[in-house]
Structures are given as C-alpha cells and as structure tokens.
Design goal:
alpha/beta; 2 domains; nine-stranded mixed sheet; 11 helices; 9 strands; globular
Length: about 350
C-alpha cells in the first residue's frame, strides 16, 4: 500500500504543567494546529519514542482506536510513544520537525524528562527523523529511520518523482497532462494509468526498464501518487521546484530517442529554494542512527537511503550511522519483529558504545 510526502514553533511547558507519573492509557489533543496522540504502556520503562508518520498520514487521532502493530510492540516493551499529526499535510517537513519537537517538549513538561528519548519514522517520516536528530541532538538519544528519502529533499524528489513523471509523459503523452501541471486525483487514476500502460506493451517495457518499476500495477500506483505529490509541492512552494533542462536520462531501451523527445522544464527559483530549506541534511550527526531499507522499494529506492551515508562519509563522520537491508519488495515493508530487533540493536549501541554490524536485518 502506498503511503498515502523550518519554521520551528517551540513551546515551553515548564510551568504550565505539574509533573505527574505516566499511567497506562491514551492521551490525544492538539498543540497549536497539530493533533497528537500519546500512548503510555502498562509497565513503563521511563523512555519515550517520538514517531514521525509519512506523507499523507493522519491529521487527527481517534483515542478509541487501538495502537498500530508497531506502536503496540513498543508499548509491550515498556516505551511510551508520542505521535504528531503535523499542522499541515503533504510534504510537511517545515511543519513536522517543529510539531514533533513541540510534542516531545509537551510530554517532558507534563510527565517529566524521560530516561532516554528516541525518534523514528517511516517514509517521509524517515526524512523527518534525520532532521530531528540532526537539529536536536541533546534532546534525543538515537534514531531509527526507516525507508526514508534521507538525502537532500530537492535532489531526491527531482531524481525519483519529477524525472519519473517526465519520462512517463514522454512514453504516454498527455495521460498525466503535464509534469508541471499534473492531473487532479480521483480514485480511478491509478487504474487508468495502468490500463493506458498495458495498451502499449513496448512503451511499458521501455518505461519499466528506465524506472525499475516491476509491474504495471506499480506503474499505475507510483505514477498516480507522484502526480499528487507534485501538485501539492507546486501549491506549497509557489511553483515547479524542478529543473531537468540539463538532465541526461539513461537506462531506457533508446536513450538517444528519449533525451531528444522528453519535455524540458525550468524550476521556479523560490520553489527550489523552499525544498532546499526543508530539508537538506547537514551531515552533523551527534547521536547513533540505524537505517532500514528494503531491497526493492518502488517509492524510495535504496540509492535514496544510501545518500545520507555518502554525505557522512564525505564529512568523515560515518561512525554514527549504520544501514541495513531487508530482503523484501515493497515500500516500508518491514515486520514489527524486524523493526523491534533493529530498535533493540540501536538501544544496545547507545548503551555500549559499540556500533552494530551493517547488512541484512533479521
């Protein structure tokens, strides 16, 4: 299932709330314009996990609903879990970083400072996880980022999302209207894109060879999703953030023909600048971070997860970053067991100072 992408509003709660001992249960509410949910385990270990959801996640929380399987696993291990719904939807790194930090501060102000505080998240939440651990290293003890586009937002979204739309538009003209003014969403859009693709098997084969998408179903879902992300980014940033005038596309069945025929677009400078600010990692990592990624992820390929490690290597600071893979297809397709095993290794790393091995996550 597709995960259906810095002004910091820091709130002080030192005098507003009396310290109380957490008791098992669920608290929901709002901080500013961001809804939140806090789950307290029956047997708390005194530690907090701040969870960052992905693109298009919840803007509200239903207190009566049980926690997700992953949150339940954290609760069973004794961790409290705090989740912000963010004050805006979409590619909301600008809001989500501050909203997540405000929630952490709220928890500490109400329940007391945790023994340790961790940050984790899936997909866009992985990018938020990286930003949070970079910007607030004294507030957090470690990070588990999962399936996130953890390099520079502008570079990832251009290479994966915009270039996919541009190349798709070359093979299937006008189906998505335009990469810089894409079609509006409706429930049948993925199926229409899939049907159009299968009507032209040679074009589909060429597009799949270039994109790495394995099936026509992936083509329909991914292209449809990307059209909506691009529409939201144009509205958010005030223009098209992406420039492909100098891009040389490779990996198709006929790269010369593709590069002669693909449409070229200039970026709106203020739109590109927005994505540079929200967010380009600094590579200043002060706390340990473990990263998970599947072998085949149709939305966030492994090269996007590798980007952060490459940045750290260039700065000579890769010792606090370990990346692991799960041998499975799908976006964020980790089991709760795999996630908890990774998290336990992160905790052991923090406590012992000994980094875990990279490689396959079991």
């Amino acid at each position: 299932m597709l995960m259906a992408p810095q002004k910091l509003v820091l709130l002080l709660f030192s005098a507003a709330f009396a310290e109380v001992k957490p008791s098992a249960g669920v608290e929901t509410g709002e901080i500013g314009k961001a809804a939140f949910r806090i789950d307290i385990p029956a047997s708390p270990n005194g530690q907090l996990i701040v969870y960052c959801h992905g693109y298009g996640g919840p803007s509200q929380y239903d207190k009566s609903k049980p926690p997700s399987a992953l949150v339940k696993a954290f609760l069973d291990a004794g961790y409290a879990v705090a989740q912000s719904g963010y004050s805006k939807k979409g590619w909301a790194l600008e809001q989500a970083i501050g909203d997540s930090e405000a929630l952490r501060a709220y928890y500490e102000g109400k329940y007391g400072k945790p023994k340790r505080t961790w940050v984790t998240g899936h997909s866009m939440g992985g990018a938020i996880t990286v930003a949070v651990i970079e910007m607030f290293p004294r507030q957090y003890d470690g990070a588990l980022q999962m399936c996130g586009p953890v390099g520079a937002s502008l570079d990832f979204l251009k290479r994966k999302m915009f270039d996919t739309l541009a190349v798709y538009d070359y093979y299937f003209p006008d189906m998505i209207v335009s990469p810089v003014a894409p079609v509006e969403w409706d429930a049948e859009l993925p199926l229409r894109i899939q049907k159009e693709a299968t009507s032209y098997p040679e074009r589909l084969e060429a597009f799949q060879k270039w994109s790495g998408l394995k099936t026509e179903v992936e083509v329909g879902q991914v292209v449809a999703f990307f059209t909506q992300v691009q529409r939201e980014l144009i509205e958010r940033t005030g223009g098209n953030p992406f420039d492909n005038r100098n891009t040389v596309y490779q990996g198709s069945t006929d790269d010369g023909k593709l590069n002669r025929g693909v449409k070229r677009f200039a970026a709106t400078p203020k739109a590109a600048d927005y994505l540079r600010r929200h967010y380009t990692p600094s590579g200043e990592l002060k706390q340990p971070m473990l990263s998970l990624h599947t072998i085949h992820d149709p939305l966030v390929p492994a090269w996007a997860a590798n980007a952060y490690g490459d940045l750290l290597e260039s700065k000579g600071g890769s010792g606090l970053y370990v990346q692991r893979f799960v041998s499975r297809n799908g976006h964020c397709a980790f089991t709760p067991e795999e996630t908890m095993n990774a998290f336990r290794d992160l905790v052991a790393w923090k406590e012992s100072g000994q980094a875990p091995a990279s490689g396959e996550q079991k």
